[in-house]
Amino acid sequence: xxxxxPYEQLGVTEDASxxxxxxxxxxxxxxxxxxxxxxRIEMAYDAVLMDRLxxxxxxxxxxPEGIRFPExxxxxxxxxxxxxxxxxxxxxxxxxxxxxxxSDILLPAGVFAAxxxxxxxxxxxxxxxxxxxxxxxxxxxxxKEKRFGRAVLFTLVGVVVGILVGGQLAAxxxxxxxxxxxxxxxxxxxxxxxxxxLR
Length: 199
Known about the structure:
0% strand; 199 residues; 9 helices
């Protein structure tokens, strides 16, 4: 057995792959219980590895690019995943929502807060304050995009929803305040949201 080359001892050819060499070593070690035989197999395996290293350094073995330069083998960039449909807003809603500046939030807030205070003075002032609030909402909405029809639509929806929901809310709360005042306050809040965050 000493006359055999390390390749012959492992039972592989000189052009065997690294995986084939490892498999032969494992198979032979599994078949032999003799400690000296296992040592000879290990020595033959080490000799084959050293020979392969020498041949590689001399350029006689071509090393695959993926092993030689692993940083060059890059996986393709992940494809961008589509957004889940639940998080996407419809196109018509995206076109209606605005990202307001600080002045676009504070100026309408001040106007509608003042109208809320005036409407609290007495029930007789509520219709006048609501009319002024609708006018202010029209102005603030039309100022952004110069689309008067859209401003009228948003203002009318805001006034109707505010009065209807405010009246129901006042009935549920059973507050000592007049239901018209509570409805006016909710309407002013909705008009402020509309004029600040819609366009």
